[in-house]
Design a protein that fits this description.
binds adenosine-5'-triphosphate; 3 domains; 5 strands; binds magnesium ion; Rossmann fold; five-stranded parallel β-sheet; Rx_N; plant defense; ADP binding; alpha/beta
């Protein structure tokens, strides 16, 4: 697994577990304490993660890390499920008179669901406790790693489950082709992937990052999530952390730059700078200067929503990501909105589903969210009313949607208005 990636997953878990909406729903289900304990255990384990990754040549540590990795993924999924539930609840309770809301939140329904989720959370907490207790070797805590930075944008990591990604084979092929193309002038060239929020830029970059051919081609592969803060010093620190598996000590910029150059100069590297917002050309040049010492064939992959960012950073023609093709959008929608096989039962359901899907303009985040909401609506009338009423409500009330989804709706709203 990529260096530091597990730490990002654990940070994600801690952040999600601390989310207000998650805590609110956990309170209703009576699992607030369990979530709190889960969060504490994951924090404790996170403190020794970097040391464990550094010692993974020890077989025992390696096995322990593997167990931990599996548990982390499952916990991350579980918290996503809870966040989605919280969101669904929020959207549905906006219209308090709606019958389905009353049914959905009727005591017995909630109780059954809450109980099931409660069991899942408890089992997950116990699994982490067991992993934490089952450490027969010594690992050092690196206390600075305990802190979890709360950021407006979620930190990304390089890990993805390829089987969850639908319809991006062509994009993946084109991006890889461009990354491996030997006919470029500069030693280190920059390929931007550009597209609106929620379109799957990070996801497709993860697919590329984990591809075997890419793994074999580059000597060094690095993933850095840039997000809000395009601070050259911080980015240099993050790249160094990625290479060395530990946060650089509080060093002067000059020392950091020298250190980084020592690590990358002469090596064919691939660096992903995920989620770049900086449109300031000066700052970009400053960073580029530091990164230019890589061997011929080195590549920097930049993901961004901004065409300006793509323009100022590019040295290779940007890859412009489009919405999912109809058939793939439909597959994803089906997966989210129907029980398996259920969609074949009613042709008119399909028709209205396809109309709703059009409104998602192929954006996977929108398809996932809206498909997920429709999953709980079991009649054609409900689907129709969702299309005419609730989709427009989402637009008006976008401020109370979970932040990441809000970003997707901002975009969605402008398309729906056209
Ligand atoms: N091809 C796909 N198949 C299934 N799910 C996808 C696909 N692409 C993206 N997703 C899901 O959609 C969501 C948004 O994807 P992602 O974060 O990659 O978008 P992004 O373009 O990087 O967005 P942002 O601009 O906010 O960074 C994620 O939950 C991701 O798992
Ligand atoms: Mg992204």
């Amino acid at each position: 697994m990529a260096e530091g990636a597990l730490f990002s997953v654990s940070s994600g878990i801690i952040r999600k577990a601390g989310d207000v909406a998650v805590q609110e729903i956990a309170l209703i289900w009576g699992v607030k304490d369990e979530i709190k304990k889960l969060k504490e255990t994951v924090s404790t384990i996170s403190a020794v993660l970097l040391d464990a990754e550094a010692k993974k040549h020890n077989n025992e540590v390696k096995l322990w890390l593997q167990r931990l990795k599996d548990a982390m993924f499952d916990a991350d999924d579980l918290l996503d499920e809870i966040s989605t539930e919280a969101l669904r609840r929020e959207v549905m309770t906006r219209d308090k008179k709606a019958k389905e809301v009353r049914i959905f939140f009727s005591k017995s329904n909630q109780l059954a669901y809450g109980l099931r989720m409660g069991h899942k959370v408890k089992a997950m907490r116990e699994r982490f406790d067991a992993i934490a207790a089952d450490r027969k070797f010594h690992l050092d805590e690196r206390s600075e790693e305990r802190q979890v930075r709360y950021k407006a944008r979620q930190q990304t990591h390089s890990v993805v489950r390829a089987e969850d990604v639908i319809g991006r084979e062509e994009d993946k092929k084109a991006i890889i082709g461009s990354l491996l193309d030997p006919n470029v002038k500069e030693n280190v060239s920059v390929l931007p992937i550009v597209g609106v929020g929620g379109l799957g830029k990070t996801t497709v970059s993860q697919l590329v990052f984990n591809d075997e051919e890419i793994k074999n081609h580059f000597e060094l592969k690095l993933w850095v999530c840039v997000s809000d803060d395009f601070d050259v010093k911080i980015i240099v620190e993050k790249i160094l952390e990625c290479i060395k598996n530990e946060k650089p000590k509080d060093l002067e910029m000059n020392t950091l730059v020298n250190d980084l150059e020592k690590e990358i100069n002469g090596k064919r590297y691939m660096l992903v700078l995920d989620d770049v917002w900086n449109e300031d050309r000066e700052k970009w040049s400053e960073l580029k200067k530091i990164l230019m010492g890589g061997a011929k064939g080195s590549r920097i992959l930049v993901t961004t929503r901004s065409e300006i960012v793509a323009k100022i950073s590019q040295s290779i023609q940007p890859h412009v990501l489009k919405g999912l093709e109809e058939q793939y959008a439909w597959s994803l929608f089906k997966k989210m909105a129907f029980e398996e096989g259920e969609e074949e039962m009613n042709a008119s359901f399909l028709e209205i589903g396809k109309e709703i899907l059009k409104m998602c303009v192929g954006v996977p985040l929108a398809i996932r969210t809206i498909g997920g909401l429709l999953y709980f609506k079991k009649s054609e009338i409900e689907w129709r009313s969702f299309k005419t009423n609730e989709l427009s409500k989402i637009r008006q009330n976008e401020s109370d949607i979970l932040p990441t989804l809000k970003l997707s709706y901002n975009y969605l709203a402008s398309h729906l208005k056209q």
